[in-house]
Design goal:
Structural class: alpha/beta
Helix content: 25-40%
Largest sheet: 6 strands, mixed
Strand content: 15-25%
Number of strands: 19
Shape: globular
Distance between the termini: 37 Å
């Protein structure tokens, strides 16, 4: 028998799956606590030990080892553009689509205080955009001059290609670490992020592969293919689209609630009704948003601050809520057994989902055009999404995961949130592994994930 070994190095847990190739099934799955400070090799060794105790690895032929990682904690990034609605929004989408966490976005001309703030934020990468090809060059050139003062943060430039020569003349005489990518918005309302995303991914992978202890894991050398969020998005795309052999699920959403963030992945056409007029930058078929202020542990208090009424609608005083959220932030690795604390975890999770889906979904407004009232749509229409898949510990381990996932229907003020999806959970926590497997065998990846998704009613 031969097997694929799939590894996800997380900032909290390292997860390993063994895939039985001949019988097309998930053979075994284990996880162990990851300590980034001590070294990721420790968590991997512990997980491998657990796996060996179950299957005796010496008797198995491991055909291929593939890995993804978020042990670096996710790239912290700053995006810079011209207008918030267009180039700055394009910068945001390129960053998030590459598996990054956007910590700040800037518009128009950078000021000296902005440069000081960026240096204090100390992001892992800065993405500089601005101007359609052949269009306005002033903003991106002036901002490049300001950014040339920053020495140790990689700068990806993905704006007006007509300004490339002038920007290069500015930066080559500084000590800036910079790289050019194709314009993320070469024409008005046309979004082309792939080259910028690939440049960001390369920087991310360089950081991941140098995580403490990674060089000690010989079996993993050169086999970390992608950031974990990218692997999850690949799995979502596979499930929606299917393969030549298997019919896909159709339009879907993946809700991933973690300790620090809540990620929403949607796989669907952005514009559902021809009667709507689309405003703003057109959305992509594959969309991912990361809410860095909505999480179960590190971001528990900010989750409360973002949606106080959602917490206060339960039987808790504000004092109790603050105490519970603060305790979670101070002890992010805590796993509760107490029913009361598990109940409060569910409250946090429900509010994380509600806020995150409202940020992810588009909206609609009534307007008047050519003598007629018409609907103007801004962002992605998710009303007709067929399935929602939940992952993350609080969903997988909850007695009533549907009650958490149903919050994707709680749209605010004309938000285009899902109306009547069916609900599934990633019961074995293998979405990231399936994304890895899809790079070498889509049919096998689809079969295993569909067999291990559990519908909840």
């Amino acid at each position: 028998m031969s097997f694929y070994m799939l590894v996800d190095f997380g900032s909290t847990y390292t997860k390993i799956s063994l895939i039985d190739i001949e019988n097309g099934r998930l053979f075994e799955r284990v996880n162990a606590h990851t300590s980034v400070k001590e070294g990721v090799d420790k968590g991997f060794e512990e997980a491998l030990k657990k796996l060996d105790e179950k299957v005796n690895l010496k008797n198995l032929e491991i055909k291929e080892v593939l890995a993804c990682s978020s042990t670096y904690g996710g790239l912290k990034m700053v995006g810079i553009g011209i207008t918030p609605q267009y180039t700055t929004e394009a910068a945001k989408r390129a960053l998030v689509g590459a598996g990054a966490k956007l910590i700040k976005a800037y518009n128009y001309y950078l000021k000296e205080r902005d440069i000081e703030e960026i240096e204090k934020l100390n992001p892992d990468i800065i993405l500089l955009t601005g101007g359609a090809d052949g269009g306005n060059k002033d903003y991106i050139i002036e901002n490049a001059k300001k950014l040339s003062k920053i020495k140790n943060i990689p700068l990806v430039i993905a704006g007006n290609s007509s300004a490339k020569e002038e920007i290069e003349n500015i930066l080559k005489n500084s000590n800036s670490n910079y790289i050019f990518a194709e314009n993320v918005m070469p024409d008005v309302n046309r979004f082309t992020p792939e080259d910028a995303k690939e440049k960001i991914r390369e920087i991310f992978m360089e950081k991941i592969t140098h995580a403490k202890g990674m060089d000690k894991i010989k079996i993993i050398k050169d086999r970390v293919l992608m950031p974990t969020p990218t692997a999850v998005l690949k799995a979502a795309e596979l499930m929606a689209m299917g393969t030549e052999k298997y019919e896909g699920f159709g339009d879907l959403i993946v809700v991933d609630i973690g300790g620090a963030t809540t990620d929403i992945h949607s796989v669907s056409e952005a514009h559902k009704l021809e009667s709507n007029i689309l405003e703003g930058l057109r959305e992509y078929f594959l969309k991912r948003t990361v809410e860095g202020d909505m999480g179960m542990r590190y971001s528990a208090y900010s989750a409360f601050e973002n949606y106080r009424e959602g917490f206060l609608s339960h039987d808790y005083s504000e004092e109790e809520i603050i105490k519970k959220c603060t305790m979670r932030q101070k002890n992010p690795e805590i796993i509760f057994q107490d029913e009361e604390e598990l109940k409060f975890d569910k409250v946090i999770a429900e509010n994380c989902v509600r806020v995150s889906i409202n940020r992810h979904a588009g909206s609609i407004r009534k307007g008047y055009l050519n003598g007629h009232y018409i609907d103007f749509q801004d962002g992605k229409d998710l009303r007709f999404v067929k399935k929602a898949i939940g992952t993350g510990g609080v969903i997988i381990n909850n007695k009533n995961p549907k009650e958490i996932l149903e919050k994707i229907k709680d749209g605010e003020n004309n938000k285009l949130t899902p109306e009547n999806p069916s609900y599934f959970i990633d019961e074995k926590y293998i979405l990231s592994h399936i994304g890895l497997l899809s790079t070498i065998d889509k049919d096998l990846a689809f079969k295993i994930l569909s067999e291990n998704l559990k519908e909840v009613k």
